[in-house]
Every structure is written in structure tokens, then in C-alpha cells.
Amino acid sequence: MIKIAPSVLSADFSNLQEEILKLETGGADMIHLDVMDGHFVPNITFGMPVIKKLRRVTKLPFDVHLMIEKPEKYIKDFVHVGADIITVHQESTIHLHRVIQQIKSFGVKGAVALNPSTPLSQIENIIEDVDMVLIMTVNPGFGGQSLIESMKDKVKKLKAIIDARNLNIDIQVDGGINLSNVRHVIEWGANVIVAGSSIFNSDNVVETIKKFKESI
Ligand code: DX5
Ligand code: ZN
């Protein structure tokens, strides 16, 4: 099943409650929350207190994308504020297998993200342990960048590995996805689609999500 996970990174942060309700009305399958620490990526967004407050606003699953150093220090906190899926970057931790196990020990889904320059071989030995792999289609840190076309081969290769091993793992793509290229990334093999600026910079957020849902 193809799912749409709007990222609130490009939303109006002074009115997040209303923005999230729009996502719900449009038919979003989950809310993608980009946590950035200013070290792992050159930008800072929000953390636990904001997510905790947002948890009261919607019942949609929270897909928390951690772009932070030493994610292992904060997993418990993000579980407690209401994360349903926690994604850590392969590049952000030395003990990736341990962090994934840590996430799953709390009964939430554990996922791993790869920067554009990180090869799939980095996760080959732990792929069976994750619920989702996030292939970054831009360099993480900012919304509104263009999708890196060469990620096509990486997504296809990952899909082939998952199929060959008969695994039940989601493939998420994040960065530069819009109504013109969403069909392409699905054809590559992705089934969880993150979109930020193409939704929030559109004239009508609700209609744009509906259009995304129609085109998938
Ligand atoms: C980028 C974030 C993305 C971002 C995507 O580092 O991980 O989730 O919100 O934004 P767009 O869809 O505008 O590329
Ligand atoms: Zn993200």
C-alpha cells in the first residue's frame, strides 16, 4: 500500500494545529516530523516539547525523522512524546543495530535513513531488523530542494533486495517530491512518500494532498 506522509517542515509553525488538521482532512496517512539538531544537519527545527503538544491534536501516526547526532540518547524521550515510527540516520550512530533494537523494544517501528552518498551496503546486514528504510532523495537539512535523480538506482536496488529476501519492509523517500514526480518514485519501488514544500507551498493544502492520493 502506498502511503503519503506530509512533512510539516514547510508548514506555518505559528499555527501547527490548524496545519495538521488540514493534513488530516486531505487524507494524509501519517505526519512526518523532521527533528534537526544543528550538528548532524546545518539546520535546527523542533524537538520533544513540540511533538508532545501536537500529539493531542491528531490520532494520525507520527513518523519522526531524527536528523540528530547520538540519536540513542533520545529514543526513549521521542517514544514518550508519542512517536509511532522513529527513523535514525545510518551516518548518525556507530551502533546502528543497537539503536534499532532500542527503538523496537518500546513497541514502536524502527527505521533507518541513508543520505544520498551512503551506499545500501551500509545496511545490508541489518535490513532484516528494520521496519522501514528511508532513502533520502535530497541532502537532509532543508525543505524545498530538488530531487536527486540518481537515487533511482538506489531505490530500485533496495526494492530488489527486499523482494529477493521476501521481507515486509517499507521504502520511504524524502526530499523534492511533488505531483509531477511522485509517480516516478513509486515506479522505482517507494511506498511511503514524504512531501513538504510541494504540499505547504501550494495554494490549497487539502486539495494538494487529495491530488497526491489520486496520483498514487
Ligand atoms: C529534509 C527533510 C524533509 C523535508 C522535505 O531534510 O527530511 O522531510 O521536509 O521537504 P521537501 O518535500 O520540500 O523536499
Ligand atoms: Zn524528513
What features would you describe in this structure?
The protein is an alpha/beta fold and 216 residues long. The protein has one domain: Aldolase class I (TIM Barrel). It is 32% helix and 19% strand. The chain has helices spanning 16-26, 48-54, 75-80, 96-105, 151-164, 182-188, 197-200, 205-215; strands spanning 3-6, 31-36, 62-67, 85-89, 109-114, 132-136, 170-174, 192-195. It is globular and about 45 Å long. The model has no long low-confidence stretch (mean pLDDT 98). Zinc ion binds at residues 7, 32, 34, 65, 174, 194.
User: What is the number of domains?
Assistant: 1
CATH topology: TIM Barrel
In N-to-C order, the SSE pattern is: EHEHEHEHEEHEHEHH
Question: C-alpha Rg, in Å?
Answer: 16 Å
Q: How much helix is in the residues? A: 25-40%
Bound molecules: D-xylitol-5-phosphate, zinc ion
| Secondary-structure-derived class | alpha/beta
So what's the oligomer here? single chain
Mean pLDDT: 98
CATH superfamily: Aldolase class I
Q: How much of the sequence is in beta strands?
A: 15-25%
Q: Kindly provide the name of the CATH class.
A: Alpha Beta
Please give the CATH architecture: Alpha-Beta Barrel
The total count of strands amounts to 8
Specify the number of helices: 8
